[in-house]
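To: structure desk
From: M.T.
Subject: fold request, one chain
Message: Could you run this one when you get a chance? Sequence is below, nothing fancy, just the single chain.
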Amino acid sequence: MRLEPVAGDDPRNLLRALRSALNGGGPAVGLRMLSADTAALPDVPAGTAVVVATSGSTGTPKNVILSRHALTASALATAERIGEGAWLLALPASYVAGLQVLVRSLVQGREPALLSGTFSAQAFTAAALTMASSEGGVRVPTFTSLVPAQLALLLDAAEHEPTVRAALQSFSAILVGGQALAPVVLERAAEAGVRVVRTYGATETSGGCVYDGAPLAGVRIRQRNGELQVTGPTLADGYLGDEALTDASFPRDPDGTRWYRTGDAGVLEGGVVRVRGRLDNVIVSGGINVSLDRVERIVRGVPGLEAAVVIGVPDAKWGEAGVVVVPRGEALRRSESTQLEEARRAVAAGIGAHARPARLVLVDEFETLPSGKPDREAIRRAVAALGRLDPPRR
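Reply: Done. Structure tokens follow.
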């Protein structure tokens, strides 16, 4: 089957190509392909709708093959869970979360609303408030997807601008994913009357497949050796041109059931999925393994550190140490030393003294990936470029 690259920076072009691909009447759509020479790539399997590169936030980017069946199954399961309605695209359409906004719109036979220009509270509000419509005298529900940083920005603006608050409240549900949502941000959303649904998933699962801890219809989750694995109709067909990686990432049970190995640590408690972080985002500090994702979740619960990123750096005494990196500005409401002490106490209480971050570093702003996620490698480089820091603490 032929693969045709489409620029994802204009969602209108992508929408036209995607409509044809989902209907089976056109070539598969290639988004952000890792090879500049798509003619050199292998043919895609019959039934493929999209080949999209992962963001690379958890390693080397990969070309993921998503079928019409997988994308449609995900869209239908989302509608079953939160309802049908109109969607606003506020994310880059060339990543799976934004792509799925377009797919859901097409599956429901609706044109998506498109945010104009760069994301801002004003642009979001203008787009959201123009979506109001009704059918048969009944208001059409509206939905959108955001990453945590976008939601936090909008909540900040909503404190001073009633129109932003009204725009947020107008949505029947706002899906938030891409990275963990800090509890304090979730609390702020609830206090503002904003209906947030936390999502968990990956490009390889056609986007979010677990909503507020509960798998979507047809999706099953299991834990193997501490790793969360996913099966169901939303799974990708694999990685284009890499059969070995496909076989390793999508193992089969003896009965033929395919699973996706997420690389995430997590548990199932009473049927609820709780993600603990990446299995490979671990440092060894003083001979003890420390999950930086787990540390980061706790640190983000400290007032003023909701946007913090925790990274690992080499340390002469402990081998490696955790560093809290946070943007300058109003978020840091108290002195750096006070904020660090609060973070250290919270981590010691939640994990243990061995996991306490050693330092807190202020930066002007974070480098981000096009998907909106923090670019952790760039953040590490920025911290390293600062030169000598204060002596580590333990």
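Reply (cont.): The radius of gyration is 21 Å. Let me know if you need anything else for the meeting.
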